[in-house]
């Protein structure tokens, strides 16, 4: 009997960029993922989820509350998908990109949402995106020769959530359309 993979959150959370990253990763990996607005703790004795967070549940015992960890779990369920990379070296690079994108793109965007006048965060984020854009002129994917979790994470962030005048790497604007066609276009 296989364990069910369910993404729990409010209706708004399940439409968020974080949820979309997880849903796209599942689609690219060919992993079945259900969504639910029910309380993720209703069928278990584990600590209930915090308000305002998505939770990825795997069976009745595993609860994951961060996007990067959820992405890694999904990719590990389908190693042939290549979402973690094609080699141990690629896996390390993917992990590095996930951490970098969280700290250098997602966090500054959260600051900008809370304080749209934060010029320091805007400048730092602009510089990071310009550098990523320059890198993407020389290669198709962040790591290796096929899409990885790092590409999915960057694509969704740059297509869904960058305030003007921030540049989105053009490759991602063309390659990652909104759902439901994301799997066909990207994976």
Automatic annotation (TrEMBL):
Stretches with biased composition (Pro residues): 163-180
GO biological process, one term: translational elongation
Segments of this protein annotated with the region Disordered: 163-187
GO cellular component: cytoplasm; nucleus
PANTHER family named among the record's database cross-references: ELONGATION FACTOR 1-GAMMA (PTHR43986:SF1)
Protein name, as recorded: GST C-terminal domain-containing protein
């Amino acid at each position: 009997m296989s364990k069910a993979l369910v993404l729990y959150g409010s209706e708004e959370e399940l439409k968020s960029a974080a949820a979309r990253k997880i849903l796209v990763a599942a689609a690219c990996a060919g992993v079945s993922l259900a969504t639910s607005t029910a309380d993720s703790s209703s069928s278990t004795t584990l600590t209930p989820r915090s308000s305002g967070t998505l939770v990825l549940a795997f069976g009745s015992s595993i609860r994951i509350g961060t996007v990067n960890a959820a992405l890694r779990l999904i990719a590990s369920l389908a190693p042939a998908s290549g979402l973690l990379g094609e080699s141990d070296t690629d896996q390390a690079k993917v992990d590095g990109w996930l951490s970098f994108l969280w700290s250098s793109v997602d966090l500054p965007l959260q600051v900008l949402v809370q304080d749209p006048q934060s010029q320091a965060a805007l400048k730092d984020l602009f510089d990071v995106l310009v550098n990523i854009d320059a890198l993407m002129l020389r290669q198709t994917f962040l790591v290796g020769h096929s899409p990885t979790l790092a590409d999915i994470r960057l694509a969704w962030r740059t297509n869904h959530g960058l305030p003007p005048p921030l540049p989105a790497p053009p490759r991602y604007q063309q390659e990652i359309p909104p759902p439901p066609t994301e799997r066909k276009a990207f994976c």
